[in-house]
Design a protein that fits this description.
- The longest helix is centred in the C-terminal third of the chain and has 20 residues.
- A six-stranded mixed sheet has the order 3-4-2-1-5-6. It has a six-stranded parallel sheet with strand order 14-13-15-16-12-17, sandwiched between helices. A five-stranded mixed sheet has the order 7-9-10-11-8, sandwiched between helices.
- The protein is built from 16 helices and 17 strands.
- It has 449 residues and is an alpha/beta fold.
Length: 449
């Protein structure tokens, strides 16, 4: 189908490989505007087709989508993206020489420079239209700007205001009637309106309530519209050390909450509390899974590391084993609780594995802890949750400001996406841990360095 060129308001978006690997359906999210895929992007995607990681899935799905959209038409011609509100797309098959040739300017025949040349060529041949390079690679965007090419991040699914997530889950009230707090202590609960009045209430929110005489920790039960007292409790001999940890453990142990996210910097006890809570509830679930995504060092594949697959993965899994050993060492070796942990591991009732090993498995009757969730994409988070079967609980832990994955940031990672999209759902609770409890030395690093 020939491309109608009368509408000058239609922009042309040139997509980089990083956008496709982030979301294979990104091509469909540019409204009525047109999309160009450089042939270099298809060549790069070909290298990602094989494997079980999310990036491999995204590459395969995009290639299938392109094949479906193009049908019997040539992909180097403008082809409709299906629907009256959608624009057109095409694959640019070559990288013609131009005045601002990126390969000559930057001195390398890199794929990034070939992609830049496509954008430059379109600017020269489509002078009446705005051309925008879309990439999640900030370095490529900077190079584009040096050539006067307008460049943007892929914004779909990106959290607009990360600061709004800071207050999600916990609230502080210091003007509470002391008699209401006394009632909470005596009865264990109180009607929400007695303390919250007309304030907006969010499901599974936690409160620090204070008066001039007393204080109490509380939890909002939206089903019964009451505030319940939250007490510090032990979980496999691990005791919360502050209010936020008490809230987190309450959410982890609450059978009515099926999805929990815990945000906090290193040393705040996120993974430790999740694992301790899981062990305390081990009789309620068939298995406990503790997993984390593998982020290769310097963005190299783990294949370059020496040894077999187990020795390659051990360094990535060691922090999870450290948490388990810490809990186990709360007991003597002769204690049955100590021996029970060893037994759970040997019988594979407690499994610690890379997240890729668990992907695709059925998640029924499972207590599932996903560590370092900030290194997941929104699509990965959605995929994990969508696999949850009956009697499954999922805990995501991480720090949205400590991203180790290229092309993700505090606004586009899966953990931020989850907190923003699921807040106030009756099955979900979120808590931010603020105080480091690892050691005074660790706190010094977090606060001053």
């Amino acid at each position: 189908m020939p491309r109608a060129k009368s509408d000058k308001d239609r922009k042309i978006f040139v997509l980089d490989t990083s956008v496709i690997l982030y979301a294979h359906n990104s091509i469909m999210n540019f409204a009525e505007h047109d999309v160009v895929i450089p042939i270099t992007v298809l060549e790069e995607l070909d290298q990602f087709k094989k494997g079980n990681d999310t990036k491999n899935f995204e590459a395969r799905e995009f290639i299938r989508l392109l094949d479906k959209l193009s049908q019997d038409q040539r992909i180097d011609q403008w082809t409709p993206l299906n629907g009256k509100t959608k624009g057109f797309f095409k694959v640019m098959m070559h990288h013609p020489e131009n005045e601002n040739n990126a390969i000559k300017i930057f001195g390398e025949e890199k794929n990034d420079n070939k992609i830049l040349n496509v954008a430059v060529h379109l600017m020269e041949t489509e002078k009446s239209r705005k051309v925008i390079l879309v990439s999640k690679d900030i370095n490529l965007r900077l190079k584009a700007k040096s050539l006067n090419v307008h460049a943007e991040d892929y914004e779909t699914g990106k959290i607009k205001n990360i600061s709004e997530l800071e207050n999600t889950g916990k609230y502080f009230l210091d003007d509470v009637d002391p008699q209401a707090i006394n009632s909470l202590y005596d009865q264990g609960y109180i009607e929400a309106k007695a303390i919250l009045g007309t304030r907006k209430r969010k499901a599974n929110a936690f409160y620090i309530l204070k008066s001039d005489k007393n204080s109490v920790l509380a939890y909002y039960n939206s089903d019964q519209n009451v505030l319940e007292r939250v007490d510090k409790r032990l979980a496999y001999n691990v005791k919360p050390r502050n209010a936020e940890q008490t809230f987190a453990l309450h959410a982890i142990m609450n059978p009515n909450i099926k999805l929990v996210s815990i945000q906090g910097v290193a040393g705040t006890g996120k993974t430790l509390l999740a694992l301790a809570g899981a062990l305390e509830q081990r009789r309620d679930y068939k298995q406990i899974f503790l997993a984390r995504p593998i982020v290769p060092l310097s963005n190299k594949d783990i294949g370059y590391l020496p040894g077999d697959i187990k020795s390659k993965l051990n360094p990535y899994m060691e922090p999870l084993w450290d948490n388990l050993k810490f809990i186990q060492n709360q007991y003597k070796e002769t204690d049955k609780e100590y021996q029970k942990i060893t037994e759970l591991v040997n019988q594979e009732k407690l499994v610690i594995q890379p997240l890729a090993y668990i992907r695709g498995r059925s998640l029924s009757n499972i207590f599932f802890i996903v560590d370092e969730a900030q290194n997941l994409t929104p699509h990965e988070i959605k995929t994990i949750i969508s696999r949850a079967g009956e009697n499954t609980k999922i805990i995501f832990t991480g720090d949205v400001f400590q991203i180790d994955t290229p092309y993700l940031d505090s606004q586009s990672n899966g953990l931020s996406y989850l907190i923003d999209r699921v807040k106030d759902h009756p099955l979900y609770a979120h808590i931010k841990l603020e105080k480091g409890e690892r050691s005074e030395l660790a706190n010094l690093a977090n606060e001053l360095l």
